[in-house]
Specification:
With 364 residues, this protein is an alpha/beta fold. The protein has a single domain, classed as Luciferase-like domain (TIM Barrel). The chain is 44% helix and 15% strand. The chain is built from twelve helices and twelve strands. Strands 1-2-3-4-7-8-9-12 form an eight-stranded parallel β-barrel, surrounded by six helices. The protein is globular and about 60 Å long. The two termini are 18 Å apart.
């Protein structure tokens, strides 16, 4: 098996990764993020994800746009794969195909895309864009991805769908990444899982327990297999590593105790447009409580909170049920991200090496 990979949320919006008034040694500016990206790739992170926001939400008053952010981070990094989040409906896939191909070309193959079907209704209505029903948003995203792949791989691409028409389009230069830049998506609903099985390369999961993650991986893997495909899995986690388990959980309690109650409740109302609106009530935030929403992708629920050894062992458990990538958020990026890279990632690599050695002994 391939070693588990590590990614981090780029803090390209203000307010950090928790909806809390707790002080954070984290900043959203370009200068800060450029230095953070350089540190991240030095200490073992392989991917970085820039989130997409266009108006203030859950305290994120200032936002650097995601595609712009990763294009600016590309020339100041060497190895890091840079993932930009985009919303179909706010972007046309032909435009994103051109921008993405250009970034991939200029970064020597280090661009990837996270296609977000959308949960924040206000962003669409403020811009005068139609707000589709939940499953329709995923149908549009599937067409969006099919157009991206077609423009990135074919010399002349034609497409006629319910949402997009491409009449002999092309992109030059083609992306360096073959057959095309990696495409990520999130969403826990049935519609999201079916879409992932058909078209996506990676499926991002909100924070969850080992068993909850196993269930999603088994279902989406089966859906992909039915389509003759394989898919990889990323898991969102808010990571708190301290010298003792008690210290780590005290940090968590402080984050929740100082939660921005008004912002968390506002976020909770906004995400009712996501998975909770589906007929199955299975999806993003459908079963999230107030504490879960303080970290806006249920990152606390993954349980990567404790000592370095405890967190590394929990990562090993997620790896064993099929997680290919841990997407981490941190309270104090300035301190916590490099510390995680220098302490936890080496322990995980040692656990992986020991597992491989044990497997080889069994085979012999």
């Amino acid at each position: 098996m391939v070693d588990i990979k590590f990614a981090y949320w780029i803090p390209n919006v203000s307010g950090g990764l928790v909806v809390s008034k707790i002080p954070q040694r984290t900043d959203w500016t370009y200068e800060y993020n450029a230095q953070l990206a350089q540190t991240a790739e030095e200490v073992g992170f392989e991917y970085a994800l820039a989130q997409a926001r266009f108006i203030a939400s859950y305290g994120a008053e200032y936002q650097l746009e995601a595609l712009t952010t990763v294009s600016a981070l590309a020339p100041v990094t060497k190895k890091l794969k840079l993932i930009a989040a985009v919303h179909p409906g706010l972007w046309h896939p032909g435009v994103v195909a051109k921008i993405g191909s250009s970034i991939d070309f200029l970064s020597n193959g280090r661009f990837a895309l996270n296609v977000v079907s959308g949960w924040f209704k206000d962003e669409f209505t403020i811009y005068g864009e139609p707000w589709l029903d939940h499953d329709e948003r995923y149908r549009r995203s599937e067409e969006f991805i099919r157009v991206l792949k077609g423009l990135w791989t074919e010399e002349e691409f034609h497409f006629r769908g319910d949402f997009y028409r491409i009449n002999g389009g092309w992109v030059k230069p083609k992306p360096i990444t073959q057959p095309h830049p990696e495409i990520f998506q999130g969403g826990n609903s049935k519609a999201a899982r079916r879409m992932a099985g058909r078209v996506s390369d990676w499926y991002f999961m909100n924070g969850n327990s080992i068993e909850g993650v196993r269930e999603q991986i088994e279902e989406v893997s089966a859906l992909a297999s039915f389509e003759g495909r394989k898919i990889k899995f990323g898991l969102n986690s808010f990571i708190i590593v301290r010298d003792t388990e008690a210290e780590a959980h005290e940090v968590l309690r402080d984050i929740i105790a100082q939660a921005d109650v008004e912002a968390v409740k506002g976020f909770g109302e906004a995400v009712k447009q996501a998975g909770a609106s589906t007929s199955e009530r299975e999806g993003m935030w459908a079963n999230s409580n107030f504490e879960d929403l303080v970290q806006y992708n249920d990152g606390f629920r993954s349980g990567l909170i404790g000592t370095a050894d405890q967190v590394a062992d929990k990562i090993r458990q997620f790896y064993e049920v099929g997680v290919d990538l841990i997407l981490g958020g941190f309270l104090h990026y300035s301190d916590d991200l490099p510390a995680f890279g220098r302490t936890v990632i080496p322990i995980v690599r040692e656990l992986e090496a020991n597992r491989r050695q044990a497997d080889e002994l069994v085979v012999v």
